[in-house]
Amino acid sequence: MDTLLLARLQFATTTSIHFLFVVVTLGLVTLLVGLQTTAVLTGKPVYWRLTRFWGQLYVINYVLGIATGIVMEFQFGLNWSGLSRYVGNVFGAPLAIETLVAFFLESTFLGMWIFGWHRLRKGVHLALLWGVALTAYASAFWIMVANSWLQNPVGYELRDGVAHLTDFTALLTNPSLGMAFGHVVFAALLVGGMLMAAVSAWHLIRRTPDYGLFRTSLRIGLVTAALSITMVQGFGFAQFAPVGQVQPTKFGGGPEADALVAEWTTRFGPGDYTPPVLASVGLGFMILIGFTLGALWLLLPLLWRDWAIRLRFPLWLILLALPLPFVAVILGWIAREVGRQPWVAYGLLPTDQAVSGVAPGVMLASLIGFSLLLGTLAVANWVLLARHAARGAADPALGRSPTQPPADTRPVPVFA
């Protein structure tokens, strides 16, 4: 097999799996901030219990997601050494900032938050969670800065065949950045809201004792998801304008695209500079899912009534719709990344010049090994999430007091 194809398949596989961890992490931490802030301000036990329950699921996803992120970092040097040599002086700057933010600040804040229950004042403990959320958003921002530069290289100059950063501000004002970052953020909130609503719906379908607790989280998740899908659609369609300006060949043709193809043919030789059909197919299905999830607004007033919740049918709709936002974010990634082909850095570095000179057999072994590793982590993550979600919110391990008796010796409180 071709080394380039194997390298692309490996990157697509690992990135897709890692992205699923990222959107859950970013979506849940935002909801956690709202829950714990409400708990501190109101003092109501229901919000403390919800914070502990959803915080435990968040921590599970975060810890296993870290390992998938490490694999991503290694791939740039192992499989894409041409990219590192050619544009590393530019592309590496936002990645280095993201690493410092995510692996140092965010992890430090999260560790202190996990072990700070019953040891820190409520305000300090809440501030740590805010720190986790803000650094998570900062991490996502710098990743999108780096990705947007690959979509539309700006603020650089070529010296001795190597790109050098000349204008850091240009990275932050890249036309390919703003709307894409907003799209990713609200996609993560959509995933987090749907996950919260679906888990809550499952407990309400089973008629667990904590009816009031999961009714509250159902409504919080559903409102979050409904608001987010509207913003996702807005930021998504708004990207078509800058894409037409900075990537004329991505989803169409025209005089600008023809001129670019002629220029590239002169510089890089004859070739197929049209993005694969897969990009447009992914975009079409993503838009279809987006419009389908827009129906959440119709369920929102219905599920505000207890009699509608007891019907169970609307709850089953939410539960069955849970995979849709996950599929949509992968399709969105395909549309953005495959639509850039055949370039690693659009119009600057062809993909076949960025791949490492590795034998196909070695690349195939790497593809199989990393796919099995990340696939195992993904399965383990969802098994653990399902298991801990099924246990309910009676006595999560997160935030449990050292003097608290075991859960099976205490009555389960019911919030009506």
Essential attributes:
two-stranded antiparallel ribbon, two-stranded antiparallel sheet, single chain, mainly alpha, 416 residues, 2 domains
What can you tell me about this protein's structure?
With 416 residues, the protein is mostly helical. It has two domains: 226 residues, no CATH class; 135 residues. Helices cover 75% and strands 3% of the residues. It contains 16 helices and four strands. The strands form two sheets. A two-stranded antiparallel sheet has the order 1-2. The protein has a two-stranded antiparallel sheet with strand order 3-4. α6 crosses α13, α7 packs antiparallel against α11 and α10 packs antiparallel against α14. 40% of the residues are buried. Belongs to the cytochrome ubiquinol oxidase subunit 1 family. It is found in: Cell membrane. It holds the Pfam family Cyt_bd_oxida_I.
Please describe the topology of this protein:
Layout: H1 3-42, H2 45-78, H3 81-115, H4 122-151, E1 156-159, E2 162-165, H5 168-172, H6 178-206, H7 211-238, H8 240-246, H9 255-268, H10 277-293, H11 296-302, H12 306-311, H13 313-320, H14 323-338, E3 343-345, E4 349-350, H15 351-354, H16 360-390
Antiparallel strand pairs: 1-2, 3-4
Helix pairs in contact: 1-2, 1-4, 1-6, 1-14, 1-16, 2-3, 2-16, 3-4, 4-6, 6-7, 6-13, 7-10, 7-11, 10-14
Brief characterization of the structure:
With 416 residues, this protein is mainly alpha-helical. Helices cover 75% and strands 3% of the residues.
